[in-house]
Input
Amino acid sequence: MESLIHYTWRHRLFPLAPLATTEGLPVEVIDPGMENRNDGPDFFNAKVKIGGMLWVGNVEIHTTASDWYAHGHDTDKRYDSVVLHVAATVDRAVMRTDGTPIPQMELQVPEHIVKNYRELQAADHYPPCYRIIPDLSNLVVHSWMSSLLYERLDMRATQITARYDAHDKNWDDALFCTIARNFGFGTNGDAFEEWSRRIDFRAVDKHADNLLQVEAIFFGQAGLLDEATVPAYYHDALHTDTYFQTLKCEYTFLAHKFGMRPMEATMWRLLGMRPANFPHVRLAQLAQLYHERRISVSKLLAATDKAAIMELLRIETTPYWDTHYTFASTPSAPIKKRVTDNAVTLLLINSIAPFYYSYGLRKDAERYCEQAIALLEQLKAENNYIIRGWIDCGLLVKNAADSQALIQLKKQYCDRRDCLRCRIGYEYLKKVYGVEEK
Output
């Protein structure tokens, strides 16, 4: 209930009757203030006229006035700056720490907002606000999706910066780790993140010219060279698998030399995955990528267009993997295990564009942030159930910038039922029930 009172106050969806304090003084809301999502009063720097006198200060909101005491505000000096206490029910007077009373106003949430909010919260289809989509103006859609895209890129930038800091402020390492995570393509993303933390890239650099040794480190640190991780019925085949035995021997030597400790192989998931996405194949591709030094910050910044970047990521594995998806498995019909164009596109969306943006923020170089947006606008929109849901509602999804914005909307708002912070949710309330902004 309190969140709805916040919403009603923030958007000034007040009843038509004049507002007044519990003492009968008229209240005019000039500015509801800036919402505070941290500790302290709910709204900062509000401007309200009480009894004809202008007050500038903070506003606190509760379901009942007695919550002021339940939350300890009467002994917290941060709340001495409150000039108006708003509650659905005023059941007692409230005081500052010095004992002076604070004006109070009862504010009821309009019935149609409550009804519509409950409808959104109870909806069992996605998106719950589908009815309003055809009526949204281009301005509303464009401004909200633009905000969502930047919000998503900011989140990704925070993750990339954390990798940069964790790897001794090395941008090349942060870039490779970012790409590695997205080689998990969702299912094994966390496993690849853990794996990348286990890689000592300076140790790998000493052996980067030897692909077999790079593979040994990559597979070994992934825990996939431990025979205990392979089904028992493959053990005989492992003993005669020259490639596996050579990798294991190399890793044993290199692990001792550099003090490496592998991750738990149980993190990797294979069940329900297409064989081409098995971690063994993806690790072999990453090893080739590292060995050929395809990816570096200098090469990425020097790439002039989308095609040049895509070419950097088009990689294939060594011949062993042409007939295998895991170690010692029954050889399959030969097929080159290339990173497909669809996979490369996803890497550009989820790795390269966020990296440009993160690098631009850290270097205070706006051109790289703009390059991130431009790259997403050149790429086709992702095709998944989230995007199809919005398209089915009538929303135009033109490119990857749009699809990334809608994924952000789904994960950070719809999944959390946080309709009150969503611009489309606001339009839903306003349009369906005819409530206009003041």
